[in-house]
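User: Show me a protein chain along with its predicted structure.
Assistant: Here is one chain, sequence first, then structure tokens.
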Amino acid sequence: MNRSIGRSVVIAIVAVALNQATLHAQDLLPTESPLPRIEKVRNYLPHMTRPEVQELLSRSDMVIIPVASLEQHGLHLPIGTDYLNGVERAKLIAQQADVLVAPILLPGQSPYHMGFEGTITLPSSLIQEVYVEAVKSLVRHGFKRFLMLNAHGGNAATTRFIVDRINQETAGIAVDLGSVLGPFRPEINEPSGSTVAVFDRHGGTGETSNSMYLTPALVDLEAAVPAELMLPPHMEAMLPDVVSGDPTALTVFLAEGLKDEGTGKGTSAEEMTSTGVWGVRDPREASAQRGWADTASMVAAAVGFIERWNQLRPPGTR
């Protein structure tokens, strides 16, 4: 047999063998990631393509931006509770109102939780700069109106300042979503629970209920236990008035409570609570039904406000 022909035959045999080996190897390789599948959510910026953003801009100039945090939430809730719940609520709003959901930062301002592992905190000034610069990017693309959805109580002042800076320093128009929902909230009957009013705030039954509805796979309710509170004596004396709904007592209480250990007030989370939960109610009293009721009321109110804003200032108005 001609030497060149023999060489060609050998090459062909080797090629077939390599191709078969490759096909066999492909059969053995996994075709999907072992992580949970990510389902695409409408109007959620991280999931969208550029043409989809362009198409949305032809219908709407409005953006919801959650302002969140990464901080401890006791023994049973994830570090990302505020970020996750805020983003999930924003997504729900966007399914009913044609607006963009654009998460920017995971951390917020949480220095008083730094005594517990996992918390990440940023200075208020830095948080403001990041959000304002992000809004400038969105304004450049054609978005005009911004709903800042604060998902962490400690960001309240920062969120208000971000709103003011957007209105004062950019072509954008911003509102603090939480401050405008009252007139639009529908009456939704929450499931009945304990009728005894007790102190129940950070990481308590409210946040736990919301997480049980919005991110149930991340809630470890079996790990939850009632917290032991160690409040300064004068704050302990205020509690009955706080629980009864006295607005002045609540304002004074929150002005001093949950503050950075470096302030010397003795009111950081680690100094006041054994588990990180700021409350005495057992978190196991929470329910997904209560979380649904609270979320449904908030989402309906947000949609109502957006519809009214669109009436007063139609999309595309200069």
